[in-house]
Amino acid sequence: KCWNSEPEKRPSFMGLSDSVESLLPSSYKRH
Predict the structure, then answer these.
(1) What phi and psi, each to the nearest 5 degrees, are found at residue 20?
(2) CB neighbours of 5 closer than 8 A, spacing ≥ 6?
(3) Element (H, E) at 14
(4) What is the pLDDT of residues 6-23, one digit of tens each?
(5) CA 8 to CA 28: how far, in whole Å?
(6) Residue 26 contacts residue 9 (beta carbons within 8 Å)
(7) Is the pTM of this model over 0.85?
(8) What is d(CA 23, CA 29) in angstroms, rounded to the nearest whole number?
(9) Are 12 and 20 in contact (CB under 8 A)?
(10) How many helices (H) and strands (E) does the chain have?
């Protein structure tokens, strides 16, 4: 879903950031 060929169907930058943070170990969220 993140890399849909139609830009308007991609998640927002904030939404994408939240998705990335959820995949990272909690230690990376402390920066």
Answers:
(1) -65, -45
(2) none
(3) helix 13-23
(4) 656 555 666 767 777 777
(5) 29
(6) no
(7) no
(8) 10
(9) no
(10) 1, 0
